[in-house]
TrEMBL record:
Entry GO CC: MICOS complex
Name of protein: MICOS complex subunit Mic10
Main location: mitochondrion
Keyword set, alphabetical order: Membrane, Mitochondrion, Mitochondrion inner membrane, Transmembrane, Transmembrane helix
Top-level division of the source organism's lineage: Eukaryota
Protein's job: Component of the MICOS complex, a large protein complex of the mitochondrial inner membrane that plays crucial roles in the maintenance of crista junctions, inner membrane architecture, and formation of contact sites to the outer membrane.
Family designation: Belongs to the MICOS complex subunit Mic10 family.
Keyword Transmembrane: yes
Membrane topology: Single-pass membrane protein
Location of the protein in the cell: Mitochondrion inner membrane
Annotated InterPro entries: Mic10 (IPR007512)
Length: 99
C-alpha cells in the first residue's frame, strides 16, 4: 500500500513538472510573438530607418523573452527573481559635545 502511494506521488510530480514546462513554453512563445508585434508596430509608427525598425522589433522580442523568463523562474522556484535591496541601517549622528 505504501509503495502504491509512493508511485502515485512520483507520478503526480512528473506530470506537474510536465505541466510547468508546457505552461512555460506557451508563455514564452506568446510573449515573444506579442512583444515582437508591438515592437514592429512601434517601429513602423515612430521610425523611418529600417535599422531602427529592426532594433525596435529586437527590443520588443527581448522584453518578451525577459518577462517570460521571470515568470517561468517564479513558476519553477516559487519565488520571483529579485535583485537584493541594499540594507540600510540607521545610525545616530555623532555628538561633538556642542549644542
Amino acid at each position: 500500500m505504501a509503495a502504491e502511494k509512493n508511485n502515485q506521488i512520483v507520478g503526480q510530480s512528473k506530470y506537474d513538472l510536465d505541466a510547468k514546462w508546457d505552461a512555460c513554453l506557451d508563455l514564452t512563445v506568446r510573449r515573444f510573438v506579442y512583444s515582437s508585434l508591438a515592437g514592429t508596430f512601434g517601429g513602423l509608427l515612430f521610425f523611418r530607418s529600417p535599422v531602427s525598425r529592426w532594433a525596435s522589433v529586437a527590443f520588443g522580442a527581448g522584453v518578451g523573452i525577459g518577462s517570460a523568463y521571470t515568470e517561468c523562474s517564479r513558476l519553477f522556484d516559487g519565488s520571483p527573481a529579485k535583485l537584493a535591496a541594499p540594507k540600510v541601517t540607521e545610525t545616530p549622528a555623532p555628538q561633538d559635545g556642542q549644542d
